[in-house]
Amino acid sequence: MSEKDSTATNESRLSFGIRGMTCATCARRIEQRLSKTPGVDFVSINLATERGFVTGSPALTLEKVGQSVREAGYNIDTEPPGQDVADRHFRRARANLFRALLITLPVTLLMILHMSGIHVRGIPWIEVVSGILLWAFPGRGTLRSAWIALVHRHTNMDSLVVMGSAAAWATGLMNGLGAPVLSFGSLATMLPALHLSGRYVESRLRRRAASAIHGLLALQPDEVDLIHESGTIRVPSESVKPESLIRVRSGERIPLDGTVANGRGLVDEAMVSGEPTPVPKNEGDAVISGTILQSGSLEIVVTHVGADTFLSRMIRLVEEAQSSKVPIQALADRITLVFIPVVTACALAAGAAWFWAYPHLQPLLQRAASWLPWVVWDAGAASTAIFAVVATLVVACPCALGLATPMALTTGSGAAAQRGLIIRNGEAIQMSQEMDALLLDKTGTLTQGHPRVVENTLSPEMVGVAAALEHHSIHPLAEAVVRYAESIHAPIPSRVEQIRETAGQGISGRVNGNRFYLGRPEKSGDYPHWLRAGYTVVELRRDEHAMGGLATADTLREDSAVSVARFRKEGIRVIMVTGDHEAAARAVAKAAGIDEVFAGLTPEEKVEIVHRLQRKGLQVGMVGDGLNDAAALKTADVGIAVGEGTDLAMESADMVIVRGGLSRVADAVDISRITFRAIRRNLFWAFFYNLLAIPLAMAALLHPLVAEAAMFFSSANVVLNASRVPGKVKQRLSE
Q: Is 441 a residue of the active site?
């Protein structure tokens, strides 16, 4: 269970586990109850991962959410997500299946003997007792779930199984008491046993899907070497505080985010960048928790611990992604809400029809029995009616419909996370594969995002003032100005007052009693040679008087040109949108192979371009990393933030590229397409199965055991189809 309050968006974002869900109807009921909770703005429940995610007012707490979940008949799970929870569910399902088989196999053997002409006295009573034993022990969880649903005046998948089994059990009881009814009592044990076998297979596949988050959790070492005055001691990672000094040796994982204070080495950052080539790290370089020091030795000053580390944030984003939904799922949700009551009505209608019209329908049933060996055509009106009711109830489980989307979304987002791509919400998956236009910011997206000062017309004193202002900025150029000031030993004032940063314009503040502004030049024509060279220019002004400027340059990412060509091959229109001046933008665009360029834009103008394209009916994607891009990322149909960017940009995005350039954006689009194809395939088969199976069951053409097996294989097909997503992703990205 985790809790996160987002200061960037001034809202509460809560992620939690849920115990007791068995089908899509359960998840839908919890969503309905939570949506009525005061302060909740958004809620999503994922049946596949058994987790929920809500956002709302800052006053919203897990206690309030837990109360609403309990009112719906379920419980909050206090354990964090991961393999341990999935393993526990798997072991419980396996134990229940083993106990169910011990009870069911003798009953099945007796049924086979009876069908072979060998009659054993008291079979109906053996079936009755076996049914009681099965529901009292291995089937107790299913019975409890159906009872909770009844108490809260709704139905779920377990309700169908219990009703079908109860009807079969009642035939055994009535037959044992001498009533002229054919006994289907063996089904009272065989149906729940088959149901529990489906639960076992489902839990096994869910355990495999849980490995995505478990793999991330396993990246953080449990202990760390802490350096202090008396030497080095081994302490738990969670006990380390910010600004502590730790040591990491060759071959070890870096336990916490930090900055290299001493030493050098090569760090494997494949888990965040997907690139196998180690990255050299020297004094002053940032390092990320979970990455591996392949060679060398590093002393690191810790900057982030606990929930603030890069790895923890990544895990949290994966959780949110797996708890989100795609728009296409809305139809499935609406259907599951009314599905079980409708099916129950259909089952009762089928039973009534067979009971009253049996003499007229029996010849048709006899003819069908010559083609379908499991059809019972001579059981009589009452028995055939019960037969049809039981078959309809057990065949119509909406489990496949409920698992179709969340299982594919879980495996797809997990495969993306292993490549440093975080899909923050399911809607982005559907929108990405329909994307028509992609807007790209320049700095940090097409370029490396590490600009450097190449020319300067300011005095050292004014360079120091510029650096003092930039100390308070999160713009990519800020670090370049500070580094340059330090390299020329410019005097940097320690105090800046009345600081104000305007996105797309610059930053201002009062230094030594004077008002300074650093940002876009008032007259770009004052720096003609820099503009012709394609440099980005920032100007320092004191009380509205220009003091001079700094020219900065950035390097194009190696994969930018190839990625732009890849987007175009997919039929996506690529457009550059940047706050930089025209000449610098055109120079980068030409190198990247981009024809459409919009330069000198404010954040509001970027948003207007997004709106303009959307009004033309285009699905628009936006890639950016800075404060200037946050509004456009939020407005676009798919907002994609580069992970090295600002927190606001990442909070505004639907996807986060943890490390890497545009090639990772292209990978994200490919993963979205593979995942969405799996979702559509799953929904098709789930609908097709129910449309085919329910009429056959109502016509008494499906034996209840065949119906239960068909339901099981339908769910298994959905889960197996989803489990193939990671393999298809690996194959596609290796091409």
A: yes
